Structure to design on (218 residues):
């Protein structure tokens, strides 16, 4: 069942302000940021993250899977703030993969993000997309790159359009190896836009959040 006032609702002026991304990883700070983006921000974040989830038609659920259970805990918190239930379990006895499953009916693989262009909620959407389908070097001493990868070219193009509406410049969407996988697409954030991306989009994934925190201090 959905609550009457999910996530405390958005602020009275309309779109909630961008959360103060770039700080250290603490449960309290992340929880405060979840509240700060409001219900619409949480929904669009989860829609962005949904590109790496699977849909069970039989059970009418969506399944998020990760090796990092801490991120699934955050997803569960976001769903709870929106008034939706979820549950977690380990996939197999020996695999280090955890699954969060939810019946939240607002989630849809058909979601069209085009209406988020130029909106703060577009940044929330890209943050969810990056947390599941993005990457950067784990070694903070390595040369920085920020990439987004997907098999859905159209969804990746929509992300690029949102980012460029915030003057975050992206490279060309390309297939790194059509021989290996003709349906695998990748785009890099241009180096001059690394800092704006980390500041405006950031991450709620514990590992990527820590990486960004260190990079912003360099």
């Amino acid at each position: 069942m959905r609550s009457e006032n999910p996530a405390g609702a958005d602020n009275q002026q309309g779109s909630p302000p961008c959360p103060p991304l770039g700080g250290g990883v603490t449960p309290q700070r992340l929880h405060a940021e979840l509240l700060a983006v409001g219900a619409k921000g949480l929904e669009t974040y989860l829609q962005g993250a949904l590109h790496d989830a699977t849909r069970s038609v039989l059970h009418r659920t969506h399944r998020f899977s990760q090796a990092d259970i801490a991120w699934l805990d955050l997803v569960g918190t976001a769903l709870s703030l929106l008034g939706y239930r979820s549950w977690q379990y380990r996939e197999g006895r020996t695999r280090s993969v955890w699954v969060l499953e939810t019946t939240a009916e607002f989630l849809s693989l058909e979601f069209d993000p085009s209406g988020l262009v130029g909106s703060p909620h577009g940044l929330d959407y890209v943050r969810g997309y990056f947390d599941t389908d993005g990457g950067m070097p784990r070694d903070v001493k390595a040369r920085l790159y920020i990439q987004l990868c997907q098999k859905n070219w159209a969804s990746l193009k929509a992300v690029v359009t949102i980012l460029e509406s915030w003057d975050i410049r992206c490279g060309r969407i390309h297939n790194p190896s059509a021989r290996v996988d003709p349906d695998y697409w990748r785009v890099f954030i241009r180096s001059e836009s690394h800092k704006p991306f980390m500041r405006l989009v950031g991450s709620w994934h514990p590992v990527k959040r820590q990486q960004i925190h260190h990079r912003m201090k360099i």
